[in-house]
Design goal:
The protein has 407 residues and is of the alpha/beta class. It folds into two domains: 204 residues, Response regulator (Rossmann fold, 3-Layer(aba) Sandwich), CATH 3.40.50; 130 residues, Response regulator (Rossmann fold, 3-Layer(aba) Sandwich). Helices cover 42% and strands 18% of the residues. The chain has 13 helices and 15 strands. The strands form three sheets. It has a seven-stranded mixed sheet with strand order 7-6-8-9-10-14-15, sandwiched between helices. A five-stranded parallel sheet has the order 2-1-3-4-5, with helices on both faces. β1, α4 and β2 form a beta-alpha-beta unit. The radius of gyration is 21 Å and the shape is globular. It starts with a helix and ends with a strand.
């Protein structure tokens, strides 16, 4: 991607070298305040109390709200609803309110397709989803066949957006891998690096492949690269021992937070304390049940969102989210919030109306997505091209005193 590739070195070098371990637009494109998020009932009352009867855009969402990846799906569901409430309170899309319905897929591809069909029966006109890559790829086959507009907030595998009706808010896996290697190298974090990845997972393996490719251009050596699979993801003693024996000062974990919490716990038991570095899949590690979060102190990860950022949009979003849901929003929440505002911006650019069928809406939205600019939580001046990829700069955070801290 053009901006990602051109800006990467400048952003990483200028913004982060001074403190190695230290540590948004107009109303139509995502700049809101905490005061602009009243209850959804108020928006409904302004349209007669029944948005469907008055005419509404029906936007569906799919993701895991139960199961091992529920922390992702619940964050997406909550933040998307928050954005919908704000937009409806401000007049909707082209003066038309949004109806939002979210279905649980339990992070299972087959259940995700079933959820898609349920939402179609409901009358869905656009899909904000799905949350995870495998499910997003499975559903994308159906949205492509139906010509349903699809914007995934966090499906990062390349094939999530292989069809022209599909777009994403997050970075793709290859870009996360390249950015991680670049950041480690340019900031001289370590000279010897080990990698532990899930070879059975498209997210993890995709990041790993691009990481190793970019690492060849960086001043560090990958001294150990050990895989695990979905059938063997509870005992990481072998992988950790090989990293320790090879003298790895940093262990790169392009994996999800559940497995990462086990790795950190087992490394502590072994007396091995390297720097641990990951990508957006580690966002959630502080919420793992029965995990000693002190073990995550110092963990670094690339993410487009930091809840302690000082810009007004982020602080208003975090405050409102905490008040409404009793928790600090993670990167997946920020992706979803931006996704809903991107749909709003593109819908207004395209001039869509609720009486249009999903095919007509999709055709209009595909063109409009390449013409909008969004100042959101996960990037300022975000744009999209016809490939479905976002164009924005990455950020990095480190866990300090039990919270994610911008670097």
């Amino acid at each position: 991607m053009k901006k990602f590739n051109k800006v990467m070195s400048v952003v990483m070098a200028s913004a982060m070298t001074a403190a190695l371990f230290a540590g948004c637009g107009n109303a139509d494109a995502g700049t809101q305040t905490a005061d602009s998020a009243p209850a959804a009932e108020e928006a409904a009352s302004e349209t007669g109390g029944d948005t469907a009867a008055a005419g509404a855009f029906k936007i569906g969402g799919i993701g895991p709200t139960t199961g091992s990846a529920a922390v992702y799906g619940l964050a997406v569901q909550n933040a998307a609803q928050l954005a919908v409430d704000e937009i409806n309170a401000a007049g909707g899309i082209n003066g038309v309110p949004i109806e939002f319905k979210f279905e649980d897929d339990e992070c299972d591809a087959e259940k995700s397709v079933n959820a898609y069909n349920t939402l179609k029966d409901w009358g869905m006109q656009m899909l904000m989803g799905t949350v995870t890559s495998g499910c997003s790829i499975a559903v994308a086959e159906n949205t492509a066949e139906d010509n349903m507009f699809q914007l995934t907030p966090s499906g990062s595998a390349v094939d999530c957006v292989k069809y022209d009706n599909a777009f994403r808010v997050c970075f793709s896996d290859p870009n996360q891998g390249a950015a991680s290697a670049l950041y480690i190298g340019e900031n001289a974090i370590a000279s010897k690096v080990a990698v532990i990845y899930d070879s059975s997972d498209i997210y993890s393996s995709g990041i790993y492949e691009k990481f190793t490719s970019e690492a060849a251009n960086q001043p560090f050596e990958i001294v150990s690269a050990e895989a695990f699979t979905a059938d063997n993801k509870t005992d990481f003693s072998v992988q950790l021992q090989k990293a320790k024996d090879a003298g790895a000062e940093l262990v790169f974990l392009p994996i999800y937070y559940t497995e990462a919490s086990l790795i950190l716990s087992q490394a502590s038991t072994m007396g091995y304390s390297p720097i641990f570095f990951g990508c957006d899949g580690l966002d959630g590690i502080l919420n793992v049940e029965n995990f000693d979060t002190s073990l995550a102190e110092g963990v670094m990860l690339l993410t487009p969102f930091a809840a302690d950022a000082e810009d007004e949009l982020t602080q208003n979003f975090v405050t409102t989210y905490k008040e409404k849901f009793g928790d600090t929003p993670n990167q997946f929440a920020a992706d979803a919030y931006d996704a809903i505002y991107a749909i709003k911006a593109a819908g207004e650019k395209a001039g869509i109306t609720p009486d249009m069928d999903m095919n007509a809406i999709c055709e209009a939205m595909k063109g409009a997505m390449t013409e909008i600019t969004l100042d959101g939580l996960t990037g300022v001046g975000m744009t999209w091209d016809a490939s479905g990829e976002p164009d924005k700069a990455p950020k990095a955070v480190q866990i300090k005193d039990g919270v994610y801290t911008a670097m």
